[in-house]
C-alpha cells in the first residue's frame, strides 16, 4: 500500500480536475486541508468525503510552524480542526504541520495532541510539485522514492500534479502497490 496525500489549497478548477482523475482511476486520496481554503470553498469538504476521499488537518492559515510558539501552533491546529468539524461533523484524525518536513518539534506534537490528534502525519516522498517542475519531473521524483508504505506529499492546485497523477497511480500499481487512504495505511 501507498498513500497519495495532498495539501488542500489552490484553485478549485484544478481540484475538480484532480477529483475527476481520481474517480476515473478509482484511486483514493487523503487531503490535508488548509482551514481558510475550506472556509472559502465550503462545498469542497463534503465533495471530497462523498467521493470516498479522506479530509484531514493542515493548519488554519498554512504558516511556517518551525520556530513557532505554543500559542501560534495551537491556534493553527484548532482553527482548522474547528472548520473541519463545522463542515463535516468531525475535526479529522490526523494533523500535518505546514512549513516543515522530517521530525517535528515537541511543541507541534504537544499542541496537536492537546487538540485531539494522536497522530502527526509526515511523508517520505516529496516531488516538490508545488514548484511546478512539470509532470515528467513529478513522475520521476515519485518513481524514485516510492516503496511499500510510502506517503507521497502532493499539492492540489497545480496543473503538473493533475497531469502526473495517472502515471503515478499506474506506476504504483505496476509495482504491486495499491493507493489507499492514510487511515488504511496506518491501520
Question: Would you give an account of this structure?
Answer:
- It contains 8 helices and 6 strands; from the N terminus they run βαβααβαβαβαβαα.
- It has 187 residues and is α/β, with parallel strands linked by helices.
- It has one domain (3-185): Glycoside hydrolase/deacetylase (TIM Barrel, Alpha-Beta Barrel), CATH 3.20.20.370.
- A 4-stranded parallel β-sheet has the order 3-2-1-6.
- Helix 1 (12-25) packs parallel to helix 7 (159-174), helix 4 (70-88) packs parallel to helix 5 (106-114) and helix 6 (135-145) runs parallel beside helix 7 (159-174).
- The longest helix is centred in the middle third of the chain and has 19 residues, at 70-88.
- The N and C termini lie close together (11 Å).
Label the overall shape.
globular
Quickly name the level 1 CATH class: Alpha Beta
**Mean pLDDT score, rounded?**
96
Task: Kindly name the structural category.
Answer: alpha/beta
Any idea of the CATH topology?
TIM Barrel
Strand content: 5-15%
**So, the CATH homologous superfamily?**
Glycoside hydrolase/deacetylase
Major sheet: order of its strands? Answer: 3-2-1-6
Strands, count? 6
Main beta sheet: 4 strands, parallel
Task: State the share of residues found in helices, binned by percent.
Answer: 40-55%
When the domains are counted, the total is 1
Low-confidence stretches: none
Reconstruct the topology from this structure:
Layout: E1 3-8, H1 12-25, E2 30-33, H2 35-40, H3 44-50, E3 54-57, H4 70-88, E4 94-95, H5 106-114, E5 119-120, H6 135-145, E6 151-155, H7 159-174, H8 182-185
Parallel strand pairs: 1-2, 1-6, 2-3, 4-5
Helix pairs in contact: 1-7, 4-5, 6-7
Amino acid at each position: 500500500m501507498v498513500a497519495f496525500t495532498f495539501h488542500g489549497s489552490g484553485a478549485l478548477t484544478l481540484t475538480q480536475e484532480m477529483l475527476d482523475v481520481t474517480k476515473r482511476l478509482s484511486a483514493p486520496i487523503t487531503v490535508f486541508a488548509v482551514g481558510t481554503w475550506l472556509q472559502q470553498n465550503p462545498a469542497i469538504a463534503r465533495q471530497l468525503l462523498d467521493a470516498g476521499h479522506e479530509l484531514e488537518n493542515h493548519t488554519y492559515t498554512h504558516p511556517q510552524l518551525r520556530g513557532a510558539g505554543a500559542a501560534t501552533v495551537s491556534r493553527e491546529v484548532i482553527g482548522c480542526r474547528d472548520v473541519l468539524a463545522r463542515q463535516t461533523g468531525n475535526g479529522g484524525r490526523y494533523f500535518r504541520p505546514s512549513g516543515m518536513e522530517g521530525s517535528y518539534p515537541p511543541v507541534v506534537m504537544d499542541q496537536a495532541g492537546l487538540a485531539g490528534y494522536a497522530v502527526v502525519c509526515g511523508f517520505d516522498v516529496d516531488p516538490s510539485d508545488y514548484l511546478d517542475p512539470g509532470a515528467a519531473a513529478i513522475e520521476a521524483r515519485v518513481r524514485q522514492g516510492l516503496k511499500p508504505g510510502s506517503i507521497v506529499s502532493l499539492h492540489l492546485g497545480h496543473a503538473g500534479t493533475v497531469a502526473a497523477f495517472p502515471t503515478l497511480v499506474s506506476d504504483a500499481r505496476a509495482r504491486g502497490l495499491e493507493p489507499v487512504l492514510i487511515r488504511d495505511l496506518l491501520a
